[in-house]
Structure formats: structure tokens, C-alpha cells
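Question (not urgent): is this output format expected?
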Amino acid sequence: MSFVIPFICLLSCSLALAQDLRREMMVRSVRFFRDQAHPVTGLVRDRAQNFQDTPATNHVSSIASTGFGLVVLSHAESTGLLPAGEGHEQVLRTLRFARDHVPRKAGWFIHFADWETGKRVWRSEYSTIDTALLVAGALYAGTVFGGEVRDIAQRLHRDMNFYFFRTNNGSVRLKQTLTLSWTPEEGFVPWQWLGYSEHMVMLLLGMGHPTRPMPRTAWGAWNRELFWQDLMGQNSPLFVHQYSHAFVDFRQVRDGHDNYHQNSVAVSRMHRRGADEFGFWGWSAGDAPGGYRVYNPQENNGTYCIGCALASAMFLPDEVLADAQRWVDGPHREKIWGRYGFVDGVNPGRDWWAPTVLGITVGPLYMALANTTEESIWKRFMSLPEMQQALRRIRR
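Got this back:
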């Protein structure tokens, strides 16, 4: 018995530390979406320095980052991480500006916009997935705040013309998959959403469209070969398994195919088994030596997106929180833990440590952590009428 009591105390203390760190990671994520949103437009910068207090000069906002911010701010206010009214005010300001000033084509937004004017930058594409992440975020915010927030969110959803990208504006009428993007200079790109990827929330928005839903055949048109089952042992970068899952509780999805949630649990475990000697893991999309890169277990140079690894908390809650605690308590704390939480990428073998965070990493990380609590993102998002309609239409 004398050995049991200390063990129980050690276990309870470890759990308390993990819960404290989870809350602190969420608080620092909220700080990112407060600091990096334009005070007038609400558009959120694509990235930010994690260790400098000097004013940022980057004026490029990401529509996906902005969409994740809508979720984070709404959830934070509903759970007391933000004072009453602060999240609502910023969310409403952002949605009004996006509706009225950010360019759209057939209801689909540009990927990158000037955070002050909303104008297109870098000859940016009109992007299907980035628009879907913004609209999904808006619909979630509507479940929290109701009123004008809900009205604008539903309007943005109604405005999305899924047939524009399914048929390439009528030129390929029998095509069942969605084209990735369109630009006024080049038209439709040749690439399609053909495989298992982060696009599932986008298709569910199409299935649950209030006036012109996608045909049921479109849900079955993409390849469901799940990477962890591949005979070559291949699996995908982590963001593929996180963006849609942060919104959608795929444990509830019954479409006659594989269990998408358990697939992502398995993939996360495979990534974690590839940890380096310092315990860092997570191949995904993020900052790396030489710039932004996408890595997977087969193609990488020893760069890990540790912020992305932590966004697998909704799949491996105990393991991820334990890893986060070990990292923040470890010898590299000052290089990886900053104003907005954990940095994006690390490559210890090259002694390289990203000085930045990306909104498309910070947002899913917050959402994944929230999905390990009773006040999950899943609970509200799955209750949306649009999602309920989509699930009914794909159920088998």
C-alpha cells in the first residue's frame, strides 16, 4: 500500500499539469487570433513571429486562417477564455467585411487577401478548401452567437455554387469531383479532389447545401484508399487528417466505408512512432528550412511540425498532452515555446527552430484540444441543420 499512494499522487499531479498546459496552449492560440486580426476588417494574418514584440509588417491574410479564427474566438467566448462580447464583436466585424469586400467567384473566396483592404494578393486562386474552412468556421460561430452572425454565415453558405467547381462552370457536366481552384488568368486548374484528404468538410457543406446540394454520387466519387492500410506502409501528412476532423466528429459518420476517425488515430500513432531522438514528431505542412514545405513519412528531411503533431490531440489525447508537457519542460523550451504557444516546425538535426507560427496550425491545434473537453467543437458543429442534412444524405 505504501507504494500505491505515491503512484496515485504522481499520476494525479501529471494529469493536473497536462490540463493546465492544455488550457495555456488554448489561451495562447486565442492570443494569436486577437493579435493578428486587422482591427477594422478582422482578416487574420497567414503567419506571425512567435518570439518578437515588434509590430508585424506582413499584410497578407489567409482566408483559411480567418475561418479557423472564427471558431477559436467563438468557442473561447462561450467557455470563458474571452470576456463576454469580445469574440462576438470580432467575429461579426470579420464576417461583415468578408461578405462585402473580399473577392468571390460563384461564392468562393480568394485564398490570400490584403488584410487591410481585402483585395487579392499574389494572383491568388479562388480556392475551394480555403473557402470551405471559412464558411465552416462561420457556421460554427453562428451556433454560438446566433443573430446576424448566423444570418451572414448561412448566406455565405448559400452563395457557394458547388456546381461551378463540380462541372467547371458547365463545361464538364458529368464530372463528380470538385476542382481545386480557379483564377481569372488561367481558369480552372487540372487538379481534382480525388483522394482521401482534408476536403471532406467541404463535401459535407455541399451535401448539406440549403438550395442546391451536391448529388449523392459526389460523396462516393473520391478514392477511399486509406494510407495507413497501403501495402507500401505509406501514410499522409497530418493536416490531411486534421482540418476536416477538427469540425466533424467522424465517429458519427456512417457512410458504408471505412471508419475515418479510427484511420486518423492509426495514422497519428504511426507518425508518433517516427519521433526523433528528442521525442519530436509530426510530418505535415508548415515552416521548414528554406521555406514552407509539406512533408510525410516517406518524403522528409528531419523537419517536424510539432504544432501539427499536437493537433492530433483529438485522436491521441493522453499521448499528445504528455508529449506537449515533456517538450515544454525540456531543454529546448526557449526555442519552441513562445507568445502563441509551440512553434510550427523544428529540425533538431540541423539546429533549426522556426521563429514563426501559422494560423492554419494554431487554429486546428486549438480545435483539437477543445475536442478533448466536454465543450467540444464537434458538439455544436454536428448539430447544424446543414450537417444533419448532409449526414442523412450520405448514410448507408
